[in-house]
Design a protein that fits this description.
The complex is a heterodimer of chains A (139) and B (170). Chain A has 139 residues and is mainly beta. In chain A, 7% of the residues lie in helices and 54% in strands. Chain A contains 2 helices and 13 strands, in the order E-E-E-E-E-E-E-H-E-E-E-E-H-E-E. Chain B is an alpha+beta fold and 170 residues long. Chain B has 2 domains: 17-94, no CATH class; 102-156, no CATH class. Helices cover 34% and strands 11% of the residues of chain B. Chain B has 7 helices and 4 strands. Chain B has helices at 17-24, 27-36, 51-54, 60-66, 74-82, 102-110, 137-146, and strands at 37-39, 122-126, 129-134, 153-156. The longest helix of chain B has 10 residues, at 27-36. Chain B is globular. Classes of the chains: A mainly beta (139), B alpha+beta (170). The interface between A and B is large, with 58 and 57 residues. Strand 1 (3-5) of chain A pairs antiparallel with strand 1 (37-39) of chain B.
Chain lengths: 139, 170
C-alpha cells in the first residue's frame, strides 16, 4: 500500500458562526510584479474542476480582469458563473510558489475556491472527523 | 503594522537515518512526525491516532512500541530510517500545525462584534487590527498599503449562515 507523508497539518478554517471548512490561506501574486500581492483565504473544494477567485481580487493586484480569456463554470443547478482566466502565482510558505492560470469571477462570489487544478500541484488529504487538512508539496 | 509577508521555503533534502536520530531525541518533533505518517487509504485500525496529543516519544525504538495507537507503522519507520520510499521524503523540521495568518483568522472568529457592521465589505486585517474596509476591494488594498502593509490579508465579511442553511462551493 502506498504511504504518504505530509509536511503540513492544519486545522480547518472557521466561520464566525462556529462552522469549519477545509481552507487554506494563500498569497496571490501578480506574476509581473511580486510587490503586488495579497494574502487570502480560500476553500479547498475537491468538487470544483478549476479554482475560482473573486474578480475584485484580480484588480487588487493590478491585473485587468477584462483582458483574460473567458471561461464559464456550470454549477450543480445548471446556472453559470462567468469568469476570466489570468496568469497569477499562488504561494504558501511551506508549499511553494505555483504559477497558474486562475479563473476570476466576473461577478461577486462569496468564497474563493481552490479546485482540482490546485490539487494537481500538491498532495492534499482530509480528515473530516478531525477537521484537519494535510498537505505536502509533492503531488 | 507592516505585513511580514512570507518567504517561500525550498524543500529540504530527504530525511536520512541521521535525521531520524536527531528528531527522535526531541519529544515534540518525534510525536509530530509520527502523527503525520499516513497510509492511503486509511485503514480503520489507524484512524484512532492522535500522536500530537498523547505520545511522548524519546527514542526511535519507542516509536515501534506505540504500535497501532499511532499511524506510523514499523514499515514506515523503517523507511524513514533507511531514507527510502515515500515515507523518506518527510522532513521533520518543516512540519507545521498552524495556518498561515492564523492570528488574523483567530481575531476574526473570536470577535464577531468587530465585524458585524462590515458584512458584505472587504476588510484588511493585520494582527488584531482592521486596517481598512469598504466595498471596493482595490481601494481597501490601496489603503492598507498606504498604511504600511506590504502584503495585506484581505477578505470579504460574509453574512451569517443560519442553522438550517448549508454551504456548497459552486
Amino acid at each position: 500500500m502506498e504511504a504518504v507523508v505530509y509536511q503540513i497539518q492544519l486545522p480547518y478554517l472557521r466561520h464566525q458562526n462556529g462552522r469549519s471548512y477545509p481552507g487554506l490561506v494563500v498569497q496571490l501574486e501578480n506574476p509581473n510584479n511580486r510587490e503586488n500581492a495579497l494574502d487570502l483565504r480560500a476553500e479547498l473544494d475537491s468538487g470544483a474542476e478549476f479554482s475560482l477567485f473573486d474578480g475584485n481580487l484580480a484588480e487588487s493586484i493590478g491585473l485587468d480582469l477584462a483582458s483574460g480569456n473567458p471561461f464559464r463554470f456550470v454549477t450543480t443547478n445548471s446556472s453559470y458563473i462567468d469568469a476570466r482566466i489570468l496568469p497569477v502565482v499562488i504561494s504558501e510558505p511551506d508549499l511553494g510558489r505555483f504559477p497558474i492560470g486562475l479563473r476570476f469571477s466576473v461577478n461577486q462570489i462569496q468564497r474563493n475556491l481552490l479546485g482540482r487544478d490546485f490539487f494537481n500541484l500538491v498532495q492534499i488529504g482530509f480528515r473530516e472527523r478531525h477537521l484537519e487538512v494535510f498537505l505536502t508539496p509533492v503531488p | 503594522m507592516p505585513s511580514p509577508g512570507h518567504k517561500t521555503s525550498a524543500r529540504k533534502p530527504a530525511l536520512k537515518a541521521s535525521g531520524l536520530r536527531s528528531f527522535a531525541t526531541n519529544p515534540a518533533r518525534a510525536r509530530n512526525s509520527a502523527s503525520l505518517v499516513s497510509t492511503l487509504p486509511v485503514p480503520t485500525a489507524h484512524v484512532e491516532f492522535s500522536g500530537r496529543a498523547r505520545a511522548r516519544v524519546t527514542t526511535a525504538a519507542s516509536f515501534a512500541a506505540l504500535g497501532t495507537s499511532l499511524v506510523a507503522t514499523a514499515g514506515s519507520l523503517s523507511k524513514l530510517a533507511n531514507g527510502s520510499g515515500a515515507a523518506a521524503e518527510c522532513d521533520a523540521s518543516s512540519i507545521r500545525f498552524a495556518s498561515y495568518r492564523s492570528r488574523e483568522m483567530k481575531y476574526y472568529v473570536e470577535h464577531p462584534e468587530r465585524f458585524e457592521h462590515l458584512i458584505g465589505e472587504w476588510v484588511a486585517v493585520e494582527g488584531q487590527t482592521i486596517i481598512a474596509h469598504g466595498f471596493d476591494a482595490p481601494e481597501v488594498v490601496s489603503e492598507a498599503k498606504r498604511k504600511g502593509v506590504k502584503v495585506p490579508f484581505v477578505f470579504r465579511v460574509e453574512s451569517k449562515v443560519e442553522n438550517d442553511e448549508g454551504m456548497i462551493g459552486l
